[in-house]
From TrEMBL:
It comes from the Bacteria. It holds the Pfam family DUF1996. Residues 140-251 are annotated as: Disordered. Residues 166-203 have a biased composition (Gly residues). Residues 271-502 form the DUF1996 domain. This is DUF1996 domain-containing protein. Transmembrane segments: none annotated. It comes from Streptomyces prasinus. Coiled coil: none annotated. PANTHER family: DOMAIN PROTEIN, PUTATIVE (AFU_ORTHOLOGUE AFUA_6G11970)-RELATED, PTHR43662. Residues 228-237 have a biased composition (Polar residues). InterPro entries: DUF1996.
Amino acid sequence: MGRNTRKRRMPLATKAVAASAALALGGGGLIWANFYASAGESGQAQNQTKANAAQQIATIDCPDVGQQLPDVPDPARGEVDGELASMDQQITDAYQRLVTTRQAQVGDAQYVQNAILGPLKDRRKVLIDRIKLEISRAGGQAPGNLDELAPCSGRPADQPLPTDGQNGGGQDGGGQDNGQDQGDGQGDGGQNDGGQGDGGQDQGEGQTPNDNGNGAAGPFAEDFVNITDVQPNSRNLPNGLAANGRSGSKGSFTTKCGVNENKLYNSDNIIVAPGVANGAHHMHDYVGNQNNSSLSSDDDLVAAETSCQNPGDKSSYFWPVLRVQDGTQEFDAADQGGGAEGNVGRILQADEAQLRWVGNKRSKVVAIPRLMRIITGDAKAFTNGLANANTSYSCTGFEDRQSTDKYVLCPEGSKLVRTSNFQSCWDGQNTDSANHRAHVAFVQADGSCANGFKAIPQLQVRLVYDVPTPTIENGQVKNPYAVDSFPEQLHKPITDHNDFINVMDESLMNKVVKCINKGKKCT
């Protein structure tokens, strides 16, 4: 039965922001309000304005309502997904207003609260009320604290923003203050720690909060670290551990699906926002299934072509594209999800996309049900915190060193590696859940599955790129690479993520399980 039978929709807010973004486009991306660079401004005035800019809000931090909805009745699921997508659009619109009203903010300390955050709270409250009503009409009961999630807060540019602790930070659950004040409780982060010698960047010195010098709102110099400065075996995120080992089910199955040679891209999110145009607000790479728009039903996925060598694997494997911010005018330079939402530069095609299924070091695995959805990592981890984060950056020849909160600078002759080890514990019943998380879980440190969950094959995705190494001079990064992101997430490394929909036929899935449980290496 297909999941998506609704008409594809684009909220009115999307159309409005598209119009405003079109006016702001220049050089392939959004002009991030670099207002103090006016040639007619005196040096003294520029310095004062820069000082004020340093105190301004760099981004908007909103509680993720969707993650607080673990149980939504099936009849209400589609409409609730649509409301959540509209809520994402509201944040995008508010962020757009934030970065295009910098001059007004300099003259009015309450401008952000009164003109942006306050109205945003009111609009979010309307959608939250709709969500509660839709759940109630379907016979369910919404969590009692949803109204508390309406307010959003602002993050000042000079405030340390959260990292995962690898370089002295600590997100502490995202540090959200739910809009009660602007800037407290954000964690003790580490944005000014640098990460590469003296490459740490104080955003008050010569840059607006939303321009990294490459026409984008991030990444900045402090978002990078030399791979040789990452300690071996120091990856400290509890999520994304390899499930396999020297015991239990020791086999593997590798599926070969290419590197998106077909150039299949879109900014939809078929899992989280079915039926909604531009539901992801960033561009995805797709391999495997060739019918991955937000309109695709389960029946469409089953009937689709596949880029996988084994025709029995029509699974959808997708992740945010990686770009180099080098001024290239990509095909989506003026589009939503692309340049109109700050995702600028040249899209890189991976040299390798390794998709490997492995077992569990504590037990045998059971088959993954057909059409099960799994999202690993969190596209909003910069504001949500680390509960669902799952990132790993490394370089070929240095893969015992994994960075989770910073992009890595690889030496000459070495290539960038992005790795995602998926959740591999299943509740034994559901192919998806209302928050798209609760039906699966990561293995624990000893490889076991908690709460009575069953071990399933773990998908391990390894993406290898030949990336020009960015240069960092005087605290500024030139031609950086970054994953596409929601605009307000500032292209932070911690927001990387990966997605999977199982569309293997039954015989192939049985082969995968058999190979893994018998300790064989199969393709």
